[in-house]
Amino acid sequence: MTKPKVLFLCTGNSARSQMAEGLLRALAGEQFEVFSAGTEPKGRILPEVQEVMREIGVDISSQYSKSVSEYLGKAHFAHVITLCADAEENCPAVFLGMGIHDHWPFDDPAKFDDESRLTRTRRVRDQIESRLRSWLIAQGMTPHDHR
Question: Per-residue confidence at 74, pLDDT binned at 50, 70, 90?
Fold first, then answer.
């Protein structure tokens, strides 16, 4: 049986969508094929994002920043979830028209000032995890406890 594909989209694919990808794999990875991409990828994952994910036992070291164009015409996604207004506005319509589309806006850790970046990135991570747990429960699934 083929697992449904889930695509998380944000602008830079350096923070929010990377956290969502790693968290969904940790919470229910055997149920889905999980991907992330950006409308304007930064080419790297923020070090603070990698750190806050390690803190909760989620390893995203094998993930990388990539463009949404990598998936154009190559994959059909059962779920497309945008995580910022920019991705919602600038994502190719082909993705927003396939499967189930949700929009879950979160603050962008790439825009946080250096002094509060780690604390605020943890907050966004926890918000994304909470939203994913609720989403999985609504899908009739029990999320794993990864911490």
Answer: confident
CA distance 135 to 61: 25
First to last CA, the chain: 29
**Is the pLDDT reported for residue 118 higher than 80?**
yes
pLDDT at 91 over 70: no
Does residue 66 register a pLDDT over 70? yes
Q: What's the pTM?
A: 0.93
How far is 92 from 72, CA to CA, in rounded Å? 9
Of 6, 91, 124, 128, the active-site residue reads: 91
Q: At what angle do helices 47-55 and 117-138 cross, to 10 degrees?
A: 60
Catalytic residue chosen out of the listed positions 6, 7, 10, 20: 10
Token digits for 58?
């989620």
Instruction: For each of the domains in the chain, give its residue range(s) and CATH number, in order of start.
Output: 5-138 (3.40.50.2300)
127 pLDDT above the threshold of 90: yes
Q: What angle do CA 97, 103, 108 make, to 5 degrees?
A: 130
Catalytic residue among 84, 124, 132, 136: 84
Closest CA to 75 of 38, 39, 33: 33
Q: Catalytic site residue 10?
A: yes
